[in-house]
Amino acid sequence: MTLPPGSGVWVSNGTGHSFTASFKGLVRNEQIFQISTQTNYLSATSPLAGAMTNVTGYRPLNGDTVQLWSTNSQSYVSHTYSAGTWSSGVPILNVGQGFVLITTNMYIWTNSWQRSVCAGP
User: Fold this and answer.
1) Are 60 and 109 in contact (CB under 8 A)?
2) How far apart are the C-alpha atoms of 57 and 20, rounded to whole Å?
3) Residues 11, 74, 6, 106: what is their CA dihedral angle, to the nearest 10 degrees?
4) CA nearest 57: which of 41, 38, 42, 72?
5) Per-residue b/e over 22-38, b at no fewer than 16 CB within 10 Å?
6) β-strand partners of 98
7) pTM (two decimals)
8) 52: three-class secondary structure by DSSP
9) Phi-psi group of 56: left, alpha or beta (phi > 0 → left; psi -120 to 50 → alpha; rest → beta)
10) Rounded distance, CA 48 to CA 97, Å?
11) Strand, coil or helix: what is 56?
12) How many CB atoms within 10 Å of residue 118?
């Protein structure tokens, strides 16, 4: 399966057993998100974890809803943005975690980040 950078994918494991999924590709230092009205399945391409706005550069608009899958409850947790605040707290992403963005707005945003250089042992 080939996915464009920034696309989210849902994997349903009907066996109940853990498995390993390997992904390969280039990590880009810039990602362009093209958002359509209604439901968007997305994922951050930067190798970072943290607040969604920091990891993706996303700036929410009133009424936007972000849904994140909770492995603990086995359900989506909705975060709706209204009047400058998030219901259920700021969405926090793990590295490469996908998310659902539901919006009535069509827009494009670009996320740029700097690669840090790490010295190996």
Assistant:
1) no
2) 29
3) 120
4) 42
5) eeeeeeeeebebebeee
6) 43
7) 0.74
8) helix
9) alpha
10) 10
11) helix
12) 5
Q: What pLDDT is recorded for position 119?
A: 42
Write out the two tokens for 14. Answer: 């009907």
Query: pLDDT by residue (tens digit) across 44-101?
Result: 777 788 999 888 888 999 999 999 988 888 899 999 999 999 999 999 998 878 899 9
> For residue 79, how many other CB atoms are within 10 A of its CB?
20
Q: Considering Cα of 102, then 43, then 36, then 108, what sign does the dihedral take?
A: positive
Q: Which of 77, 43, 73, 79 is nearest to 60 (CA)?
A: 79
Q: What six digits make up the tokens of 18?
A: 């853990």
Mark out the alpha helices in 25-79 (DSSP H runs).
52-56
Q: Tell me: the pLDDT tens digits for 2-50?
A: 766 556 666 777 887 887 777 666 666 777 888 899 999 888 777 788 9
The amino acid sitting at 98 is G
